[in-house]
Amino acid sequence: MLDAPPGRVPSIYMHCCKVAAGKSMLAVRLAEVPAAIAVAQDPSMAALYPEELRPIAAYLLASTAYAVGASA
Questions:
Q1: What domain of life does the UniProt record list for this protein's source (predicted)?
Q2: Which of 1, 20, 38, 39 has the smallest count of CB within 10 Å of its CB?
Q3: End-to-end CA distance of the chain
Q4: What residues contact residue 31 under an 8 Å CB cut-off, 6+ apart?
Q5: What is the CA radius of gyration of the chain?
């Protein structure tokens, strides 16, 4: 088990935001602190489901098509 640096309390940060909001970048910056660990979903999901991860433009196109179809 990792010990927190002196004067720091062990913490867990969970990021829940919209797509492309900067969650992964923030996690990388938080992990720069000594004794910190970043657990990211993106690399794991990319390895498990490579065909499912697409550029943000494809996500936006699909979500727009879904919204239009749902309102019809």
A1: Bacteria
A2: 1
A3: 54
A4: 37, 38
A5: 17
**H or E segment to which residue 49 belongs:** none
Full-model pTM: 0.49
- Please give the structure tokens belonging to residue 42: 């993106």
| 17-42 residue pLDDT tens | 887 788 888 888 988 887 788 887 77
Q: Return the closest-CA partner of residue 37 out of 22, 27, 46, 47.
A: 27
pLDDT beyond 60 at 52 = yes
Residues 6+ apart with CB under 8 A from 51: none
